[in-house]
Amino acid sequence: MDFLIQGLGLLLAPKVLLVICICSLYGLFVGSIPGLSATLAASLLIPFTFFMDPVPALVSIVTMSAMAIFAGDIPAALVRIPGTPSSAAYTQDSFALTQQGKAEMVLGVDVVFSAIGGLMGAVVLMTSAPMLAEVAMNFSSFEYFWLAALGLSATVMVSRGSQVKGALAMLLGLFLSTIGVDITLGYPRFTFGSVELLNGISFIPAMIGVFGISEVMRNVMQGEMKFAIARVQAGRIFHGTWGLFKRYKFNVLRSGFLGTFIGILPGAGADIAAWLAYAVSKRSSKEPEKYGYGSIEAIIDSGTANNSCLAGDWVPALVFGIPGDSITAIVIGVLFMKGLRPGPMIFEQQPQIIYAVYLAFIVANILMIPFGYLAVKTSSQMLRVPKNILIPGILMFAITGAFAINNSVFDIGVLGLMGIIGYFMEANGYPVAPIVLGLVLGPILEQNFMTSMIKSDWDLTLFFMRPISAILGTITVIIWLFPFLAAFLEKAKKNRTS
Amino acid sequence: MGKNDYIGGGIFVALGVFIWAMTFQFPGLDKGHPGPSLFPQVLGTLFIFFGSLVVYNGWKTKKVKEESPPGEEIPLNSFNPILVIILIAAFIAAANKLGFIISGVAILFILMMKLRVSLLKSSIVSVALVCFVFLIFSKVLRVPLPIGLLGW
Questions:
Q1: Has residue B122 got a pLDDT over 90?
Q2: Less Cβ crowding at N or C end of chain B, within 10 Å?
Q3: What is the distance between the alpha carbons of residues A402 and B84, in angstroms, rounded to a whole number?
Q4: Vertex B65 angle, CA B63 and B69, to 5°
Q5: With contact defined as beta carbons under 8 Å apart, do A230 and A379 qualify?
Q6: Between chains, do B95 and A409 touch, taking CB under 8 Å as contact?
Q7: For chain A, which residues make up each domain, given as ranges?
Q8: Span A466-480, mean pLDDT?
Q9: Closest residue of B to A164, CA-based?
Q10: Mean of pLDDT values over B9-29
Q11: Are the beta carbons of B147 and B104 closer than 8 angstroms?
Q12: For residue A273, which of A229, A297, A304 has the smallest C-alpha distance?
């Protein structure tokens, strides 16, 4: 209870409240602009968090991401383009209802059920994270190695498109993490005599490059988008929402927990949660024929799931130091930057910070109602912001942010190079989020592997001797073998049929 | 993606070979155990394996590839992404000599003009935006942004 009060005290500091308000508006703005993702918003926020205390730094990401994921629903409903990938699952339904003159109802549902989903996720985070942290206190380097391997494997498994390409993207991130002085002998690897490379590839410029510069490059390739925006009477958006809540309360409960569970799985983010909730909703609905043609049930389910997923993503990040998605990969980078080591010890050593994060989720999702109303009210203006001015602005912030971390133009070079890599990889069907996860988890994976090997005198069997280590190892190996098993079974099925 | 998969997969295979070649110079641990080279060598092997799979998939896709029907294509300006990189490189080269403000205004102005923003708007927005970013980072966050020519 003391820690809760301390956390509340930290959260209610005027500076933190100001950060919450600014980041809410920032998240709403970025989320509302089609083509700009919540991950881009988070990556551009990092240079600012560098200069903040740990609580406002973490709170800024919590607030911004919650608002951005909700705000992605606005252009989905008004112009049929999802603001962020998390809204893609129900864009068709949202726009179909808008065309039927129900834009106010859709946006009201988006605001309210996003907030409810976010609150449900926060409750699960508050209850499950401390319990898991207790379990994780007994973890050794063997368990941490398998957790990192499991996180990376799950990332590849759920990555969009080809899993082989997802694996290559992850390997690239792992390789980049090996650049610099190694942990066993202090030997400089892949530095080519460069003093700047001795400390390794700086995580922040690399991440801004992969997400920010590649997005700038993609956006400048397309011409200016002009939208025909549906008119909305913001004053009417909450009419009938209570009735919908009463009618679909079980859907909300189911999707809230499903979204949070997806979030807890390493590598799976809000977009996957929304798609899965949509599929489950359709399967259990009494009106499945409406899906794709304007189903409010689909919007309620998916909108609840994608926001509840956000808090779930923080569970593995805080408890094990394993990111749940690309935004929490950024969070782990911020924690390290602030001298905090994510993992069970943070619950013992800095509990007030953890409680402040919990409360930030609750505050952000409560604030979503008034801020969401504001966003809907100003939506037509936000959608008219000219992209040919906005994108150069993002470029300037990205360059300055990359420089600001080490006050070095070398990092701007890293930014540009990673931007090129991210751009070409995405253009050729390689997902880029695994690069960042590989970059974050690489040192954890290698350090725990080498520590375990030296501890066990190079006896690999010890990786399967401790019970939790054996379970995690078995799950990881099954994930590795799954594509081969699936291909083998499919082939066998085909042979039987023919 | 047939041809692109050849190139992409080939690059990753080459990266794997390069990593292996580099690790031969790395020292080992006592009793002949691998040290700094172990993790990169595992990665190199996996790069070669998965890179070859991409090349193979590209070859398979090419074999079954059919002509897609001509459809309405969105006009894309493929030079603009290259311009973004050129501008970043120009900023790196010029920032220390010309300073953050002059270099920043120059790259923003060029990019906005290329994106068909009017001359007047490009001039005003680029100066205003760079000054705003400079004030936030230099004065509020105390980042020592290079002053260059404006620091005479």
A1: yes
A2: C
A3: 16
A4: 160
A5: no
A6: yes
A7: 2-497
A8: 91
A9: B50
A10: 93
A11: no
A12: A304
CA distance A401 to A420: 18
- The pTM of this model reads 0.84
Q: Which of B23, B61, B80, B107 to mutate to test the interface with A (most CBs of A within 10 A)?
A: B80
- Distance, in Å, from the CA atom of B118 to the CA atom of B96, rounded to the nearest integer, reads 29
A419 has pLDDT over 90: yes
Interchain contact A392–B (C-beta under 8 A)? yes
Q: Which of A404, A409, A413 sits opposite B141 (nearest CB)?
A: A404
**A130 Cβ contact list (under 8 Å, min separation 6):** A347
Q: What is the H or E stretch that residue A189 is in?
A: strand A188-189
Return the structure tokens found at A125.
């985070």
Rounded mean pLDDT of chain A? 87
What pLDDT does residue A160 have? 65
ipTM of the complex: 0.90
Chain A residues in contact with B112 (beta carbon < 8 A):
388-389, 392
- Residue B80 belongs to what H/E stretch? helix B79-98
Burial (CB count within 10 angstroms: exposed 0-12, middle 13-18, buried 19+), residue A235: exposed
Are B94 and B103 a contacting pair, CB within 8 Å?
Answer: yes
Instruction: For residue B47, give the nearest of A51, A171, A224 by CB distance.
Output: A171
The full length of chain A comes to 498
What the block records as the tokens of B135 is 């004030």
